[in-house]
Amino acid sequence: MRNLILIALITFLGFSAQAQEKKNKNAKYETEVSGNCEHCKKRIEKAAFGVSGVKSAVWDISSHKLNLILNEEKTSPADVKNAIAKSGHDTDIAKTTQEVYDGLPMCCKYERK
């Protein structure tokens, strides 16, 4: 009996290890991105679209929310947030460097947390 349970357990673990999580080709995400104006909007959206797999990126000035549609087989939300941070805008998980932030136009200087 113990051998049957052991064989069943090994078989189950083997099948579950082979099963891969299916990636969504049109995954929707919303995240907060710091910024102030139309210049920020253009920069944020351009940085997002620069990441392979991003299908849609729309940043709302008043809410500071970035709505994304991306292919999870090609990228992740973290990749997009890192690209945005490199362009000069803080996100919840990726912060821009002070040097890049200082290079932003005056109208784009947001209050950093």
Automatic annotation (TrEMBL):
Keywords: Signal. This is Metal transporter. Gene3D superfamilies: 3.30.70.100. It comes from Flavobacterium hydatis (Cytophaga aquatilis). One of its GO terms (molecular function) is metal ion binding. The keyword Manganese does not apply. Residues 1-19 form the signal peptide. InterPro entries: HMA_dom, HMA_dom_sf. The keyword Nucleus does not apply. Residues 26-92 form the HMA domain.
